[in-house]
Amino acid sequence: xxxxxxxxxxAVTTGGFSLNDMPGSAGRMDxxxxxxxxxxxxxxxxxxxxxxxxxxxxxxxxxRLIRFNGEKVRYLNPDERSAGALIKKAxxxxxxxxxxxxxxxxxWVREADLQTLLDEFVRDGRKIxxxxxxxxxxxxxxxxxxxGVFILGDHLGLMxxxxxxxxxxSAGTISLGPLSLHADHCIILxxxxxxxxxxxxxxx
Length: 204
What we know:
This protein is α/β, with parallel strands linked by helices. The protein has one domain (2-197): 3-Layer(aba) Sandwich (Alpha/beta knot), CATH 3.40.1280.10. It has helices spanning 29-40, 80-91, 114-123, 160-169, 183-197; strands spanning 2-8, 41-42, 45-46, 50-56, 64-69, 101-104, 107-110, 128-137, 149-153, 172-175. The chain has an eight-stranded mixed sheet. Helix 1 crosses helix 2 and helix 1 runs parallel beside helix 5. It is globular. The model has no long low-confidence stretch (mean pLDDT 94).
């Protein structure tokens, strides 16, 4: 299982946003939707052994944590609006608490912050990896990051306190190249490196 954590600092935490204006009314929810598509979609198929954890930190009810599970998710199509609709349904629930509740098949929501989520992964023995341009080249780390937990920021990156927490709890800092990339593009590159490990005819 691969897990991707994507932090949306401005992403609204109520279901009242418009699917027609996710960059504006929803606090750059479009970024999170593109990340969902990159986490799960293959050509004519879905990746089943992955999860995406969207940490929404915008107004008015932050934090909200929405989990997508590739094995169980339904009604997800390869467009931003589809992912946005599932996020919207999750945020429209009126009984959100620290206990995870299902909003639609394969999608759950709860009240949780970054510390809580990382603590849970560490307790489960999972390795956490943070991506930064000055990290270790992923092509020298691919074997080590199998079944990893990957943390990515939105257009704002990670805040100083978030980065300090992640660096303290992570198993390593990894680079996808010398240039800063969009989070959804980073996800595709991570998948590609891991796919290559399981493709015997490609020599590394």
